[in-house]
Amino acid sequence: MAKSKSFFLILILGSLAALGPFSIDMYLPGFKAIAQDLNTGVPNVSLSLSSFFIGISAGQLLYGPLLDKFGRKKPLYFGLALYILSSLGCLLVTSIDQLIVLRFVQAIGSCATAVASVAMVRDLFTVKESPKVFASLMLVIAVSPMLAPTAGGYLIAALGWQSVFVFLSFMALLMLLACIWWLPESYKPDPTYSLKPKPILSNFLLVLKEPGFYTYALVSAITFSGLFAYVSSSPVVFMDLYQVTETGYGWIFALLSVSFIGFSQVNSIILKWFTSKNIVFWALIAQCIFSILFLSAALNDLLNLYTTIGFIALFLGCLGFINPNASALALAPFSKNAGSASALMGALQMGLGALASAVISLFAADVVWPMPAVMTIAALIALFCLLIGKNKIRPVSANQ
Known about the structure:
This protein is mostly helical. It contains 14 helices and no strands. The chain is globular.
């Protein structure tokens, strides 16, 4: 594939994959304003984040079969249209319950872009090329935490929290037009693919039986739950405990994203000398060490704003190594069922992310330690899954 064409495809696919993170991150600085306008507390507003995680997890299971039956573009159009309508609906809410429900619907729409973008990487690039392409996607995706909270903070300060959802609607509309005009259909629709529950479940079970999938999909999803623990608790930790302003919070979020971006791009370079399997293993070891030190410092009251930022940056840097390689390795065994495999992997990521977010919300809002506790548990469980599953994995041709 020509480099210029490849770059343009990666840019579109990365933008699609970034819609979900933008939807998560951009309204975070507005939690206090939303709580005041809707006469509720910040912990209740955080439930709209949990409902988004649940929606994007469940919705990906819906879109997987649709992408395999109808091709990639038609389900993508539907998802983007649903996202636009629900985003506009968020402008009109008068209660936190309405916002929670509409965020769930918004997530159902956005997960079409998440599943389709990952599946299309598997359609358009070989197993050997995929880790580098996923790392490039991570670059586009990781820009969203740099831009979204910062832009959201300024938008909310100037125009109110509703302006975030106006921006997201416009962003999704531009993506829809780009998909219609420039994104190729990468998968021939399969009219024989059944959408009845039994065949769909059988197909998902077939994917889950593949050792390469369940090992690396679990590693990716479990470590990602640590990321969501950070995202869901960061407004309280930074703005309440450390008294950071809305715009200052946005800049901290952007700064922390640099480690995620930087290490995911370093990953593309070191793939010349190390295999994806080795990178995942050693990055997980490092992530376990950093998260344990973070938790120990939190429990002994040794943290301040700067050390907290430093430990989170180290955790996210390891994730920048783990996620692109684990995603590529999880999808490597599949060519025919890449849509279903992508959906399952995304559902695992977002489902565990919702769980991590919900767990964080159970603890008192005046302590830091729940964040590193969830990060530590996630890293240790992911390492355990890798050690148990890696010996069962069958080799896959790099040119497949």
